[in-house]
User: Fold this.
Amino acid sequence: MAASFSGKLLVANPELRDPNFYRTVVLLFEHGEDGAFGTILNRPTKEEAGEHLPAWANLLAEPGLVYIGGPVQNDVAVGVAEWSEIDGEGRDGLFSGVGFIDLTDPPDSDDLPEQVRVYSGYSGWDAGQLEVEMAIDSWFVIEPIVSDVFGDPADLWSRILRRQPGRLSLYAQYPHDLTTN
Assistant:
């Protein structure tokens, strides 16, 4: 394995038609020789996260919904939070003050994040699987910014591609159905 993409975004190539990942943006938590896992950022549900995690309700990023993190273990809640700085017990920094948070215990009043998003399940790849998908151009690897995680998910896929330099930005306008182009 040449490089780790932990803490990066995987933005689905519009030709990736797998319904689990069509036009998704995945925040990659870990990527190594044993495989990779992360969470889909742009699949909100209509479920209120505060109903499931009332202790966290005041810290939930707008709109306070549960997001579908991926096709793996949808009964597990995955938390991503933003702090003004990353360090301390119980969290792993991904980038720019964004990291994991353990949602099993109530928030620690001495170490409150600024905001939290809750994901149902996660996305995972076995050893070498993501590398194969990347070799056939299923994913674009992008540097994240905080608003990618905590902003409006409605047009996240195209918004991220639009801000990229060169030809990659052209994918932002890629039609859902090429026959209508």
Remarks:
- Helices lie at 49-52, 129-135, 146-150, 156-162.
- The first strand starts at residue 9 and ends at 12.
- The domain at 9-180 is CATH 3.40.1740.10 (VC0467-like).
- The longest helix spans residues 129-135.
